[in-house]
Amino acid sequence: MVVYLLMRFKTIMAPNPTPYKIDGVKRRTPNSFPWVTVFFAVSALVLGITILTPIPEKIRRRLGLERKVTPPSRKDAPKPDVIYKDRVVEKKILVRPPYYEVKKGTDVSKTSRGFDYKYEIQEKAGRSASSERETDGTYEASLTFSIVRPEAARRLDELIKQNPDLPQILPGLENLVEKSRVSPFFKNLYDNKKSRLKLYANRFDRVLTKRNYFDCETMLELEHSQSKRKVFLFQTDMDVVSDGSDGDRVPRMPDKIVNSANYQPFTSYGWKKTGKVENPMITGWNKMLAEAKAKGDSSEVKRLSAGIADLRRRSFLIAEYDPFVVIPVFILQDRESAWAPNVGDYVAVIHGKKVYPAIVGDGGPNFKIGEASLRMAKALNPKSTPYTAPVSGLGVTYIVFPRTSGTWKVPDYSSWKTECAKLIDEIGGLGEGYELHEWSNTLPKISKEK
Protein backbone atom coordinates (compact mmCIF):
# COMPACT_ATOMS: atom_id res chain seq x y z
CA MET A 1 0.00 0.00 0.00
CA VAL A 2 2.83 2.38 0.83
CA VAL A 3 4.46 1.74 -2.54
CA TYR A 4 1.17 2.46 -4.30
CA LEU A 5 0.75 5.81 -2.53
CA LEU A 6 4.28 6.85 -3.43
CA MET A 7 3.71 5.99 -7.06
CA ARG A 8 0.42 7.87 -6.98
CA PHE A 9 2.09 10.95 -5.46
CA LYS A 10 4.79 10.90 -8.14
CA THR A 11 2.15 10.78 -10.83
CA ILE A 12 0.23 13.74 -9.45
CA MET A 13 3.31 15.88 -9.05
CA ALA A 14 4.55 15.30 -12.60
CA PRO A 15 3.73 18.26 -15.08
CA ASN A 16 1.57 17.69 -18.13
CA PRO A 17 3.97 17.64 -21.14
CA THR A 18 1.30 18.51 -23.82
CA PRO A 19 -1.48 20.73 -22.49
CA TYR A 20 -4.19 20.89 -25.23
CA LYS A 21 -6.55 23.78 -25.67
CA ILE A 22 -10.13 22.70 -26.48
CA ASP A 23 -12.52 25.06 -28.15
CA GLY A 24 -15.62 26.00 -26.17
CA VAL A 25 -14.04 25.14 -22.87
CA LYS A 26 -12.37 27.55 -20.55
CA ARG A 27 -8.75 26.82 -19.86
CA ARG A 28 -8.27 25.14 -16.54
CA THR A 29 -6.31 26.82 -13.83
CA PRO A 30 -3.18 24.89 -12.88
CA ASN A 31 -3.65 22.39 -9.99
CA SER A 32 -2.57 23.51 -6.46
CA PHE A 33 -0.19 21.39 -4.32
CA PRO A 34 -2.03 18.16 -2.96
CA TRP A 35 -1.40 18.62 0.75
CA VAL A 36 -4.24 16.32 1.87
CA THR A 37 -3.03 13.43 -0.23
CA VAL A 38 0.49 13.80 1.03
CA PHE A 39 -0.76 13.90 4.62
CA PHE A 40 -2.69 10.64 4.29
CA ALA A 41 0.21 8.96 2.49
CA VAL A 42 2.72 9.85 5.19
CA SER A 43 0.26 8.82 7.96
CA ALA A 44 -0.29 5.44 6.35
CA LEU A 45 3.47 4.94 6.04
CA VAL A 46 4.10 5.78 9.70
CA LEU A 47 1.18 3.60 10.86
CA GLY A 48 2.40 0.60 8.86
CA ILE A 49 5.88 0.87 10.31
CA THR A 50 4.50 1.29 13.86
CA ILE A 51 2.41 -1.87 13.63
CA LEU A 52 5.57 -3.89 13.04
CA THR A 53 7.18 -2.66 16.30
CA PRO A 54 6.55 -3.68 20.03
CA ILE A 55 4.99 -0.25 20.67
CA PRO A 56 1.34 -1.37 20.26
CA GLU A 57 1.76 -4.20 22.81
CA LYS A 58 3.35 -1.78 25.30
CA ILE A 59 0.43 0.58 24.92
CA ARG A 60 -2.07 -2.23 25.54
CA ARG A 61 -0.23 -3.33 28.71
CA ARG A 62 -0.12 0.33 29.86
CA LEU A 63 -3.86 0.58 29.42
CA GLY A 64 -4.49 -2.80 31.06
CA LEU A 65 -5.72 -4.39 27.84
CA GLU A 66 -3.13 -7.20 27.53
CA ARG A 67 -4.40 -10.39 25.95
CA LYS A 68 -4.64 -13.63 28.00
CA VAL A 69 -3.46 -16.50 25.91
CA THR A 70 -4.93 -19.88 26.89
CA PRO A 71 -2.74 -22.78 25.74
CA PRO A 72 -4.56 -25.46 23.79
CA SER A 73 -5.65 -28.38 25.97
CA ARG A 74 -4.16 -31.76 25.25
CA LYS A 75 -4.59 -35.13 26.82
CA ASP A 76 -1.12 -36.19 27.85
CA ALA A 77 -0.28 -39.67 29.15
CA PRO A 78 -0.34 -39.85 33.00
CA LYS A 79 3.03 -39.06 34.51
CA PRO A 80 4.72 -41.76 36.61
CA ASP A 81 4.70 -41.37 40.37
CA VAL A 82 7.90 -39.91 41.70
CA ILE A 83 9.55 -39.98 45.06
CA TYR A 84 11.42 -36.88 46.16
CA LYS A 85 14.44 -37.88 48.12
CA ASP A 86 17.45 -35.68 48.73
CA ARG A 87 16.30 -33.44 45.86
CA VAL A 88 16.70 -36.31 43.42
CA VAL A 89 13.62 -37.37 41.49
CA GLU A 90 13.38 -41.15 41.13
CA LYS A 91 10.77 -43.05 39.21
CA LYS A 92 8.70 -45.41 41.33
CA ILE A 93 9.06 -48.83 39.68
CA LEU A 94 6.49 -51.52 40.29
CA VAL A 95 8.31 -54.79 40.96
CA ARG A 96 6.79 -57.95 39.55
CA PRO A 97 7.90 -61.61 39.78
CA PRO A 98 10.46 -63.04 39.35
CA TYR A 99 12.05 -59.84 40.65
CA TYR A 100 11.94 -58.88 44.30
CA GLU A 101 11.38 -55.44 45.70
CA VAL A 102 14.10 -54.04 47.92
CA LYS A 103 12.08 -52.16 50.48
CA LYS A 104 13.13 -48.86 52.01
CA GLY A 105 15.80 -49.27 54.64
CA THR A 106 16.72 -52.83 53.63
CA ASP A 107 20.17 -53.87 54.81
CA VAL A 108 21.15 -57.08 53.03
CA SER A 109 24.15 -57.48 55.30
CA LYS A 110 21.79 -58.38 58.15
CA THR A 111 19.49 -61.28 57.34
CA SER A 112 17.86 -64.00 59.38
CA ARG A 113 19.53 -66.61 57.19
CA GLY A 114 22.89 -66.12 58.89
CA PHE A 115 25.05 -65.26 55.88
CA ASP A 116 28.04 -62.93 56.15
CA TYR A 117 28.11 -60.52 53.18
CA LYS A 118 31.16 -58.92 51.58
CA TYR A 119 30.89 -55.93 49.24
CA GLU A 120 33.08 -55.04 46.27
CA ILE A 121 32.52 -52.47 43.51
CA GLN A 122 34.06 -53.22 40.10
CA GLU A 123 34.11 -50.59 37.38
CA LYS A 124 35.29 -50.56 33.76
CA ALA A 125 35.14 -48.13 30.87
CA GLY A 126 32.12 -48.30 28.62
CA ARG A 127 30.29 -46.60 25.77
CA SER A 128 27.79 -43.79 25.94
CA ALA A 129 25.28 -43.73 28.79
CA SER A 130 22.38 -44.08 26.35
CA SER A 131 23.91 -47.29 24.98
CA GLU A 132 24.93 -48.84 28.29
CA ARG A 133 21.55 -48.00 29.81
CA GLU A 134 19.84 -50.42 27.44
CA THR A 135 22.49 -53.16 27.63
CA ASP A 136 22.21 -56.14 30.00
CA GLY A 137 25.07 -56.70 32.40
CA THR A 138 26.23 -53.10 32.61
CA TYR A 139 24.67 -52.54 36.03
CA GLU A 140 24.38 -55.74 38.02
CA ALA A 141 25.14 -57.45 41.31
CA SER A 142 26.49 -60.98 41.55
CA LEU A 143 25.69 -63.28 44.46
CA THR A 144 28.17 -66.00 45.34
CA PHE A 145 27.53 -68.49 48.13
CA SER A 146 30.79 -69.47 49.79
CA ILE A 147 30.16 -72.43 52.07
CA VAL A 148 32.46 -74.69 54.05
CA ARG A 149 31.71 -78.39 54.21
CA PRO A 150 32.31 -79.67 57.75
CA GLU A 151 34.26 -82.78 58.60
CA ALA A 152 32.45 -85.46 60.56
CA ALA A 153 33.57 -86.10 64.14
CA ARG A 154 34.68 -89.71 64.55
CA ARG A 155 36.78 -89.94 67.72
CA LEU A 156 35.43 -90.10 71.25
CA ASP A 157 37.22 -86.91 72.27
CA GLU A 158 35.38 -85.13 69.45
CA LEU A 159 32.00 -86.55 70.47
CA ILE A 160 32.35 -85.53 74.09
CA LYS A 161 32.85 -81.90 73.06
CA GLN A 162 29.10 -81.83 72.53
CA ASN A 163 28.27 -83.90 75.62
CA PRO A 164 31.01 -84.60 78.18
CA ASP A 165 28.75 -87.14 79.96
CA LEU A 166 28.65 -89.60 77.05
CA PRO A 167 31.43 -91.95 78.35
CA GLN A 168 29.68 -92.26 81.71
CA ILE A 169 26.23 -92.80 80.18
CA LEU A 170 27.49 -95.40 77.68
CA PRO A 171 30.65 -97.05 79.04
CA GLY A 172 30.92 -99.23 75.92
CA LEU A 173 30.93 -96.26 73.55
CA GLU A 174 34.72 -95.95 73.52
CA ASN A 175 35.20 -99.44 72.07
CA LEU A 176 32.38 -98.90 69.60
CA VAL A 177 33.88 -95.67 68.28
CA GLU A 178 37.38 -97.15 67.86
CA LYS A 179 36.20 -99.36 65.01
CA SER A 180 33.53 -97.06 63.64
CA ARG A 181 33.39 -95.41 60.26
CA VAL A 182 31.73 -92.24 59.08
CA SER A 183 28.46 -93.09 57.42
CA PRO A 184 28.13 -92.27 53.69
CA PHE A 185 24.85 -90.63 54.67
CA PHE A 186 26.86 -87.76 56.16
CA LYS A 187 28.26 -86.86 52.74
CA ASN A 188 24.88 -87.38 51.14
CA LEU A 189 23.27 -85.03 53.62
CA TYR A 190 25.66 -82.18 52.85
CA ASP A 191 25.37 -82.91 49.12
CA ASN A 192 21.64 -82.39 49.53
CA LYS A 193 22.23 -79.15 51.41
CA LYS A 194 24.41 -77.86 48.58
CA SER A 195 21.77 -78.82 46.01
CA ARG A 196 19.17 -77.00 48.06
CA LEU A 197 21.28 -73.83 48.08
CA LYS A 198 21.79 -74.08 44.33
CA LEU A 199 18.07 -74.59 43.72
CA TYR A 200 16.99 -71.58 45.79
CA ALA A 201 20.03 -69.32 45.41
CA ASN A 202 17.75 -66.53 44.19
CA ARG A 203 15.22 -66.96 47.01
CA PHE A 204 16.49 -65.66 50.32
CA ASP A 205 13.32 -66.90 51.98
CA ARG A 206 14.01 -70.48 50.93
CA VAL A 207 17.74 -70.96 51.37
CA LEU A 208 18.91 -72.78 54.48
CA THR A 209 19.83 -70.78 57.52
CA LYS A 210 23.35 -71.10 58.83
CA ARG A 211 21.94 -73.02 61.78
CA ASN A 212 20.18 -75.55 59.55
CA TYR A 213 23.19 -75.90 57.27
CA PHE A 214 25.54 -76.79 60.13
CA ASP A 215 23.03 -79.03 61.91
CA CYS A 216 24.94 -82.32 61.95
CA GLU A 217 28.19 -82.94 63.81
CA THR A 218 28.59 -86.53 62.70
CA MET A 219 27.01 -89.77 61.49
CA LEU A 220 28.77 -92.96 62.55
CA GLU A 221 28.24 -96.64 61.82
CA LEU A 222 28.99 -98.66 64.95
CA GLU A 223 28.96 -102.41 65.65
CA HIS A 224 29.48 -104.18 68.95
CA SER A 225 32.32 -106.65 68.70
CA GLN A 226 30.50 -109.44 70.57
CA SER A 227 26.76 -109.00 70.11
CA LYS A 228 27.20 -107.68 66.55
CA ARG A 229 24.46 -105.21 67.31
CA LYS A 230 24.65 -102.38 64.81
CA VAL A 231 24.13 -98.77 65.81
CA PHE A 232 23.56 -95.69 63.68
CA LEU A 233 24.80 -92.74 65.77
CA PHE A 234 24.38 -89.10 64.86
CA GLN A 235 24.90 -85.86 66.75
CA THR A 236 22.72 -82.88 65.88
CA ASP A 237 20.56 -80.16 67.31
CA MET A 238 16.80 -80.68 67.68
CA ASP A 239 14.03 -79.02 65.73
CA VAL A 240 10.36 -79.53 66.53
CA VAL A 241 7.60 -81.20 64.51
CA SER A 242 3.93 -81.05 65.47
CA ASP A 243 2.28 -83.43 62.97
CA GLY A 244 -0.05 -86.37 63.40
CA SER A 245 -3.63 -87.24 64.37
CA ASP A 246 -5.64 -90.15 65.78
CA GLY A 247 -9.39 -89.99 66.21
CA ASP A 248 -9.37 -93.04 68.51
CA ARG A 249 -7.09 -91.39 71.08
CA VAL A 250 -7.77 -87.67 70.46
CA PRO A 251 -11.23 -87.28 68.91
CA ARG A 252 -11.21 -83.48 69.13
CA MET A 253 -8.57 -81.02 67.99
CA PRO A 254 -8.50 -77.19 67.98
CA ASP A 255 -10.29 -75.53 65.06
CA LYS A 256 -7.13 -73.68 64.02
CA ILE A 257 -5.46 -77.06 63.47
CA VAL A 258 -8.46 -78.77 61.89
CA ASN A 259 -8.87 -75.94 59.37
CA SER A 260 -5.15 -75.44 58.73
CA ALA A 261 -3.83 -76.17 55.25
CA ASN A 262 -0.30 -76.51 56.68
CA TYR A 263 -0.88 -79.01 59.48
CA GLN A 264 0.02 -82.55 58.44
CA PRO A 265 -2.32 -85.13 60.05
CA PHE A 266 -0.14 -88.06 58.97
CA THR A 267 3.11 -89.62 60.17
CA SER A 268 5.08 -92.36 58.45
CA TYR A 269 4.34 -94.61 61.42
CA GLY A 270 0.67 -95.61 61.37
CA TRP A 271 -1.60 -98.56 62.15
CA LYS A 272 -5.05 -99.82 61.30
CA LYS A 273 -7.78 -97.78 62.96
CA THR A 274 -9.44 -99.67 65.83
CA GLY A 275 -12.19 -97.30 67.02
CA LYS A 276 -15.32 -95.89 65.43
CA VAL A 277 -14.68 -92.18 66.10
CA GLU A 278 -13.84 -90.32 62.91
CA ASN A 279 -10.49 -88.55 62.69
CA PRO A 280 -11.19 -84.88 63.56
CA MET A 281 -8.97 -83.69 60.69
CA ILE A 282 -11.41 -85.10 58.12
CA THR A 283 -13.72 -82.11 58.69
CA GLY A 284 -11.07 -79.63 57.60
CA TRP A 285 -9.92 -81.77 54.72
CA ASN A 286 -13.49 -82.09 53.42
CA LYS A 287 -13.67 -78.29 53.30
CA MET A 288 -10.42 -78.09 51.35
CA LEU A 289 -11.69 -80.82 49.01
CA ALA A 290 -14.87 -78.83 48.27
CA GLU A 291 -12.78 -75.75 47.50
CA ALA A 292 -10.49 -77.74 45.20
CA LYS A 293 -13.48 -79.13 43.31
CA ALA A 294 -14.94 -75.63 42.92
CA LYS A 295 -11.66 -74.43 41.43
CA GLY A 296 -11.39 -77.46 39.16
CA ASP A 297 -7.98 -78.39 40.59
CA SER A 298 -7.89 -82.09 39.68
CA SER A 299 -4.47 -82.82 41.19
CA GLU A 300 -5.48 -81.29 44.53
CA VAL A 301 -8.79 -83.15 44.46
CA LYS A 302 -6.91 -86.40 43.96
CA ARG A 303 -4.46 -85.68 46.80
CA LEU A 304 -7.13 -84.65 49.29
CA SER A 305 -9.41 -87.58 48.40
CA ALA A 306 -6.58 -90.06 48.97
CA GLY A 307 -5.69 -88.36 52.27
CA ILE A 308 -9.26 -88.50 53.56
CA ALA A 309 -9.47 -92.18 52.70
CA ASP A 310 -6.23 -92.79 54.64
CA LEU A 311 -7.52 -90.83 57.64
CA ARG A 312 -10.62 -93.05 57.72
CA ARG A 313 -8.57 -96.21 57.48
CA ARG A 314 -5.55 -95.62 59.74
CA SER A 315 -4.37 -93.88 62.91
CA PHE A 316 -1.08 -92.01 63.35
CA LEU A 317 1.30 -90.73 65.98
CA ILE A 318 0.54 -87.35 67.52
CA ALA A 319 3.62 -85.18 68.04
CA GLU A 320 2.14 -83.40 71.02
CA TYR A 321 1.72 -86.65 72.98
CA ASP A 322 4.04 -89.29 71.45
CA PRO A 323 7.86 -89.25 71.73
CA PHE A 324 9.44 -89.96 68.35
CA VAL A 325 12.26 -88.75 66.11
CA VAL A 326 12.35 -87.86 62.42
CA ILE A 327 14.93 -89.21 59.96
CA PRO A 328 15.55 -87.80 56.44
CA VAL A 329 13.56 -89.72 53.84
CA PHE A 330 16.60 -90.56 51.70
CA ILE A 331 18.05 -92.52 54.64
CA LEU A 332 14.80 -94.33 55.40
CA GLN A 333 14.47 -95.35 51.76
CA ASP A 334 17.91 -96.96 51.64
CA ARG A 335 17.66 -100.73 51.33
CA GLU A 336 21.34 -101.58 50.92
CA SER A 337 23.07 -100.28 54.05
CA ALA A 338 22.71 -102.46 57.14
CA TRP A 339 22.94 -99.26 59.23
CA ALA A 340 20.06 -97.46 57.52
CA PRO A 341 17.18 -96.92 59.99
CA ASN A 342 13.59 -97.82 59.16
CA VAL A 343 10.34 -96.33 60.40
CA GLY A 344 9.49 -97.93 63.73
CA ASP A 345 13.11 -98.65 64.75
CA TYR A 346 13.95 -97.98 68.39
CA VAL A 347 16.03 -94.96 69.38
CA ALA A 348 17.74 -93.72 72.53
CA VAL A 349 17.98 -89.93 72.61
CA ILE A 350 20.73 -88.61 74.89
CA HIS A 351 20.91 -85.00 76.07
CA GLY A 352 22.87 -83.90 79.12
CA LYS A 353 22.58 -86.71 81.66
CA LYS A 354 19.21 -87.95 80.39
CA VAL A 355 18.37 -90.87 78.09
CA TYR A 356 14.95 -90.95 76.42
CA PRO A 357 13.50 -94.05 74.71
CA ALA A 358 11.62 -93.44 71.46
CA ILE A 359 11.02 -94.74 67.95
CA VAL A 360 11.63 -93.46 64.43
CA GLY A 361 8.17 -92.10 63.75
CA ASP A 362 8.38 -90.04 60.58
CA GLY A 363 10.42 -89.12 57.54
CA GLY A 364 11.69 -85.59 57.07
CA PRO A 365 13.39 -83.35 54.50
CA ASN A 366 16.50 -84.67 52.79
CA PHE A 367 18.53 -81.51 53.53
CA LYS A 368 18.28 -81.42 57.33
CA ILE A 369 18.38 -83.76 60.30
CA GLY A 370 17.68 -83.63 64.01
CA GLU A 371 13.91 -83.26 64.20
CA ALA A 372 11.76 -84.75 66.95
CA SER A 373 8.19 -84.58 68.20
CA LEU A 374 6.94 -81.78 70.39
CA ARG A 375 6.59 -84.27 73.26
CA MET A 376 10.27 -85.17 73.00
CA ALA A 377 11.32 -81.53 72.68
CA LYS A 378 9.41 -80.51 75.80
CA ALA A 379 11.15 -83.27 77.75
CA LEU A 380 14.49 -81.64 76.88
CA ASN A 381 13.20 -78.11 77.43
CA PRO A 382 9.71 -77.33 78.76
CA LYS A 383 9.77 -73.99 76.93
CA SER A 384 9.78 -75.70 73.54
CA THR A 385 7.01 -74.92 71.07
CA PRO A 386 6.43 -75.85 67.42
CA TYR A 387 8.38 -72.65 66.64
CA THR A 388 10.97 -72.75 69.42
CA ALA A 389 13.73 -75.36 69.43
CA PRO A 390 14.63 -76.99 72.76
CA VAL A 391 18.39 -76.69 72.24
CA SER A 392 20.63 -74.45 70.17
CA GLY A 393 23.86 -76.45 69.99
CA LEU A 394 24.67 -79.85 68.51
CA GLY A 395 24.60 -81.62 71.85
CA VAL A 396 21.84 -84.15 71.16
CA THR A 397 23.11 -87.69 70.49
CA TYR A 398 20.78 -90.15 68.77
CA ILE A 399 21.46 -93.88 69.15
CA VAL A 400 19.36 -95.66 66.50
CA PHE A 401 19.11 -99.45 66.36
CA PRO A 402 18.49 -100.34 62.69
CA ARG A 403 16.16 -103.14 61.69
CA THR A 404 14.49 -103.39 65.10
CA SER A 405 11.01 -102.21 64.19
CA GLY A 406 8.23 -104.44 65.46
CA THR A 407 4.53 -104.52 64.68
CA TRP A 408 3.10 -101.06 64.12
CA LYS A 409 0.34 -100.49 66.64
CA VAL A 410 -1.01 -98.05 69.20
CA PRO A 411 1.99 -96.54 71.06
CA ASP A 412 2.95 -98.39 74.21
CA TYR A 413 5.53 -96.25 76.01
CA SER A 414 6.34 -98.92 78.57
CA SER A 415 7.06 -101.44 75.83
CA TRP A 416 9.26 -98.91 74.01
CA LYS A 417 11.31 -98.43 77.16
CA THR A 418 11.72 -102.17 77.65
CA GLU A 419 12.88 -102.75 74.07
CA CYS A 420 15.33 -99.86 74.19
CA ALA A 421 16.82 -101.16 77.46
CA LYS A 422 17.43 -104.58 75.89
CA LEU A 423 19.14 -103.07 72.87
CA ILE A 424 21.34 -100.77 74.96
CA ASP A 425 22.43 -103.77 77.00
CA GLU A 426 23.65 -105.37 73.77
CA ILE A 427 26.16 -102.54 73.28
CA GLY A 428 27.44 -102.40 76.88
CA GLY A 429 24.45 -101.04 78.81
CA LEU A 430 23.95 -97.79 80.65
CA GLY A 431 26.48 -96.55 83.15
CA GLU A 432 25.94 -96.75 86.87
CA GLY A 433 23.36 -94.26 88.08
CA TYR A 434 21.74 -93.76 84.67
CA GLU A 435 18.37 -95.07 83.56
CA LEU A 436 15.88 -94.62 80.77
CA HIS A 437 13.25 -91.93 81.07
CA GLU A 438 9.75 -93.08 81.99
CA TRP A 439 7.11 -91.60 79.70
CA SER A 440 3.73 -90.91 81.22
CA ASN A 441 0.43 -90.94 79.36
CA THR A 442 -0.62 -87.32 78.77
CA LEU A 443 -3.47 -88.02 76.37
CA PRO A 444 -6.68 -86.11 77.19
CA LYS A 445 -9.38 -88.14 78.90
CA ILE A 446 -12.21 -89.09 76.57
CA SER A 447 -15.65 -88.51 78.04
CA LYS A 448 -18.16 -91.29 77.42
CA GLU A 449 -21.18 -89.82 75.68
CA LYS A 450 -24.55 -91.36 76.45
What does this structure look like?
The chain is an alpha+beta fold and about 450 residues long. Among the domains are: about 190 residues, no CATH class; about 60 residues, no CATH class. Helices cover about 30% and strands about 15% of the residues. The strands form three sheets. The chain has a six-stranded mixed barrel. Strands 1-2 form a two-stranded antiparallel ribbon. A hairpin with a 2-residue loop joins β9 and β10. α1 runs antiparallel to α2 and α11 packs antiparallel against α12. The longest helix has 17 residues. It is elongated. The N terminus is likely disordered.
Helix content: 25-40%
Distance between the termini: 122 Å
Number of strands: 12
For the largest sheet, list the strands in their spatial order. Answer: 5-11-8-10-9-12
Secondary structural class:
alpha+beta
Order of helices and strands: HHHEEHHHHEHHEEHEHHEEHEEEHEH
The fraction of residues in strands falls at: 15-25%
Separate helix tally: 15
Mind telling me the C-alpha Rg? 47 Å
User: Rough shape?
Assistant: elongated
List low-pLDDT spans.
1-14, 16-30, 77-91
What is the average per-residue confidence, as pLDDT, rounded to a whole number? 84
Question: What about the largest sheet?
Answer: 6 strands, mixed, barrel
